[in-house]
Amino acid sequence: MAFALRKATTYLVKRMHLRPVRKVQFTFDPYMKNVTSIRDVASTLHKPEILETNQGTILKFDIKSDRTEPRIDVHFNDGEKLVFKTGNLSQLEILDYLYEYVQEKDPRKNESPELVTKSAKAGTKGGKGKKKR
């Protein structure tokens, strides 16, 4: 079972991006027992390959010692806010829900890939190719 969880988490991490996200705020009390998932998600989102997808995203940590329930506030570029109360959620569940919302709001979602035809490729070779007589 642990292998399946690691594989699913790795799958999500490889596809995760922060393009539509403006700010992610992590609020938790490190002395509580149920903060492992929020700490794991924070370390996952701090990976350079995820942070490079949107360098304008702010990751903010609000660490308290007043028995505050762990939560993640995700602020999107369109003004919408998503709140995860992570006390009873696993890392995989949080990443899965976050991935779904981020994919839904992705500004590149409707862009089609640029098609390059053979004639366009031949024209970009810098004059190399068949000579016309």
Automatic annotation (TrEMBL):
Gene3D superfamilies: Glutaredoxin. It comes from the Eukaryota. This is Large ribosomal subunit protein mL53. The keyword Ribosomal protein applies. One of its GO terms (cellular component) is mitochondrial large ribosomal subunit. InterPro entries: mtLSU_mL53, Ribosomal_mL53. The lineage of its organism: Eukaryota, Metazoa, Spiralia, Lophotrochozoa, Mollusca. Residues 106-133 are annotated as: Disordered. Belongs to the mitochondrion-specific ribosomal protein mL53 family. It is found in: Mitochondrion. Its main location: mitochondrion. Coiled coil: none annotated. Keywords: Mitochondrion, Ribonucleoprotein, Ribosomal protein, Transit peptide.
